[in-house]
């Protein structure tokens, strides 16, 4: 009985996933008016699109360090049209404050 529980706990520890992996976040207001969605977790990576304040993202992988992999929906598109039609990329974690 204890052995299966220990294996399950060990598996969770090895996974190292981010507890926020299913959270949805709203993009904040920024000084330049957008938050960059990048192809890879680097500021020099190709820009996929410019996310605006109020756009919604879902954290796919919390990652380690300064970046998270996310799915992006403009405005309230996910609520209006469902989960299809998203863009996927990386965003600097400092912009992922309004999650819940």
Please report which band the strand proportion falls in: under 5%, 5-15%, 15-25%, 25-35%, 35-45% or over 45%: 25-35%
Mean pLDDT: 79
Total number of strands = 6
CATH topology: SH3 type barrels
What is the CATH homologous superfamily assignment?
Answer: SH3 Domains
Q: What is the helix/strand order?
A: HEEEEEHE
Percent helix: 10-25%
Q: How many domains is the backbone divided into?
A: 1
CATH class: Mainly Beta
Tell me which CATH architecture applies here. Roll
- Multimerization status: single chain
Gyration radius, rounded:
16 Å
Biggest sheet descriptor: 4 strands, antiparallel
Can you tag this structure with a few keywords?
single chain, 100 residues, alpha+beta, SH3 type barrels, four-stranded antiparallel beta sheet, two-stranded antiparallel sheet, 2 helices, 19% helix, 31% strand, disordered N terminus
How is this structure best described in words?
It is a single chain. The model is unreliable at 1-21 (pLDDT under 50). A four-stranded antiparallel β-sheet has the order 1-4-5-6, with no helix packed on it. Strand 4 and strand 5 form a beta hairpin. The longest helix is centred in the first third of the chain and has 14 residues, at 2-15. The termini are far apart. It has a single domain (18-95), classed as SH3 Domains (SH3 type barrels), CATH 2.30.30. The protein has helices spanning 2-15, 77-81, and strands at 24-26, 35-38, 47-51, 56-61, 67-73, 87-92. It is of the alpha+beta class and 100 residues long.
């Amino acid at each position: 009985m204890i052995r299966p529980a220990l294996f399950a706990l060990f598996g969770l520890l090895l996974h190292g996933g981010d507890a926020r992996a299913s959270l949805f976040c709203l993009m904040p207001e920024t000084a330049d008016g957008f938050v960059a969605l990048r192809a890879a977790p680097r500021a020099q990576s190709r820009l996929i699109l410019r996310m605006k304040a109020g756009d919604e993202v879902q954290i796919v992988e919390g990652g380690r360090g300064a970046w998270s992999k996310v799915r992006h929906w403009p405005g309230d598109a996910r609520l209006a049209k469902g989960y299809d039609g998203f863009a996927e990329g990386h965003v600097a974690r400092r912009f992922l404050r309004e999650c819940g």
